[in-house]
Structure formats: structure tokens, C-alpha cells
Amino acid sequence: MGRVVHFEIHVDDMERAKKFYGDVFGWTYQDYSEYAGMSYFGAVTGDDNQMGINGALMKRQGPPPEANQGLNGYACTMGVADYDTTEAKILENGGKVALPKYALPGMAWQGYYLDTEGNIFGIHQPDEKAK
Question: pLDDT tens digits, residue range 110-124?
Fold first, then answer.
């Protein structure tokens, strides 16, 4: 099977992006720039004993996504324990709402946001009472 094992988020301002994801989700980073030949930071997204994958922030190699265009790529969705608290952190740290919170009835709360670099990502809080 072709299971996802790594992700890359393309960014214009590395320090701004590192701060955003660090402050919102608690990510830490490892500098792999020397190996990659460009600004490239491995993103540690959680403990090894938690479900999920690690990825990286890398310097954008082309123009950023245009405003109001459909998604042209993958969107990463982060599992969160408290949707509303996480949304507040996103907005406090310069993120913007792309698609407001909505219920996946009987399963979860879901929504999509723009990070400080213009990339779309989702957050997902499991909740069997969502409706």
C-alpha cells in the first residue's frame, strides 16, 4: 500500500511559518537545510507513540497559491482535542478561516483555514455528538 509517510508545507517566510505551526499545534523543528540544499525544517508533529506522521516546512519554489482558487494539491488535516480553542489559536497567530466549522454528523467537527503562507489546512475534532 502507498501509505502517506511524510508531508511538506511550502512557505515564503520560514520563521513566520515555524512560529505559526509551533504556537498553534506545538510542533518542533529539526534543521535539514544542509541536506536539502535549501531552507528545509523537519516538523516533529507529536510523540512517536501517537498516530500520525511528521513532515517538513520548505522554502516555496514558485508562486504562492492565488486567493479564491480551488485547492490544487493536498490539504493536511490535524486532529485536535478542542476545536474552538485551536481555532482561536489559529486566528490569534495570523491564520484565517477558509471554510468555517461544520459537523460531520455523528463523527466530528471539521473546518479549514489558511496559514500565514496562504496554504489551506484542516482541523478535526472527533465528537460522536456533532450535528
Answer: 999 999 999 999 999
8-state DSSP, 92: H
46-56, pLDDT tens digit by residue? 999 999 999 99
Q: Which residues pair with 55 in a beta bridge?
A: 43
Closest CA to 125 of 113, 111, 109, 112: 109
pLDDT digits (tens, 9 = 90+) for 26-36: 999 999 999 99
CA–CA distance, 119 with 90 (Å, rounded to integer): 13
Cβ contacts of residue 36 below 8 Å, gap of 6+?
A: 58
Nearest CA among 72, 48, 59, 62 for reference residue 14: 59
- Secondary structure of residue 59 in the 3-state scheme: strand
